[in-house]
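Dear support,

I submitted the protein below through the web form. The confirmation email said the job was done, but the results page showed an empty box. After a refresh the structure appeared. I'm attaching both so you can tell me whether what I see now is the final result or a partial one.
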Amino acid sequence: MAGAPIDDAVWAEVESARLRLADLLDGLSREEWESPSLCGGWRVRDVVAHLTLPPTLTTAGWMKELLRSGGSFHRMVRDSAVRTAREPAAGLVARLREHAGSRLLPPAPGAGADTTVMDVLTHSQDIAVPLGREIEIVPDAARAGLESLWRLRFPFNPRKALSGIRFVATDSAWDIGDGPVVTGPASALLLVLTNREAGLERVSGAGVPLLRARLP
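What the results page shows now:
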């Protein structure tokens, strides 16, 4: 397939990002594991638990989780993370590291290497940013995530929600949209396109007031 080499490169970035996050997690204190993340109502521990599920759950496993949550996608995501988060922190990190190279995908339309790298890079920032920790976000990997975000309609739909704004990455060859410009590193654009207000601190341009008003 023509897209296979590109997918291979993105999957390699997924593996690297998972391993970088595992390394960061090794150094967290007990208090930091219980601290709030950028995801509203989610602790750092909950986000880590969520990230261990895509590389380990089969389609049958996801279907079981969906049934367990009464068919609600959002409830499934929340409940599966909270339940998994009861496991010891060391075990969660070990699982993330052990399955860093996994290419399992949830049974969702459009799921692929690019949506996976978007998920991992965004959630890595959900953990690192509020803790004041540094974690490398490779610009080209973030660009693949941004491209997937602009294509998707669920659970985010930035093409509709943020229409009338042009986004330009300052560290990668990515720009999209029409209207007043918002510029910033691809990592920050990942945050604002997934409704994280923390990303606003790292973007600039005439489109920022409109972007701020549009974020839920």
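Response: this is the final, complete result; the empty box was a page-load delay. The longest strand covers residues 166-169.
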